[in-house]
Amino acid sequence: MGAVDLWVNLLSPEVAQRMSGEYFGAQVKPESAEDVVAVMDGCDIETAVLTVGLSGSMVEDTLEVADRFPGRFLVAGAVDRATRPTRMGLRVRELATHPRFALVRVTPLNDQLPLNDRLYYPVYAACEETGLPMSVNVGVPGPPMRSRVQDPVLLEDLLIDFPRMVVIGAHMGHPYEELLVTYMRKWPNLYLSNSAYLARYIDPALLKYMGSSAGRGRVLFASDHPFLLMERAVAAARALDLDDEAITAFLEGARAVLAR
Length: 260
Known about the structure:
Helix content is 39%, strand content 16%.
């Protein structure tokens, strides 16, 4: 097994130009699949999960990229038409048949809908039925928008209403890390990812949990490359004050979670 980056963005020139400046003024450049593989090789990342919206043809195009690089890429589809819940649920079921489609994402900040809003429920149901893990952004985000839509307290509704669905809290969940540790102890199918958040800033209580026998493999590595460069994210992860087994579980744990 090798390290897995749970969140990577493959940006076309058009998307890179549009998104530059939206994330704290960051300027991002377009990258080809070959460019990303070269970065992965330099960081000792075996597999990256490429994230695109569920609508349109971008998912199929990205799955073709994944097929061209077997073992290097998996694909995640993000809900981008929350007001069309039936269509989003059907789309998840369609894509679930592809062996490299591995994950579905909900980003409440973008929709400004609570993560337990009923508009998301057809997608959650589709994930539970197909065995696809669900990634949900949690915590207080940087942009000046309503944070309560990503309150991790709302995760319990998902975990109760869809008891067979694997849920990954994305983007670290700051400043609710201690609550999330409590939830992970309570809910065996809840995980957390540090996407878009350098590992050096991981809360001490969460770091202690990651080093415990109960917490190994429950916090999963992700970068959000190129908004947070993979090189920086991996270096910070490998420098954590954890033993080798715990760091390996952090870097490689996503593989077992994504397996169907």
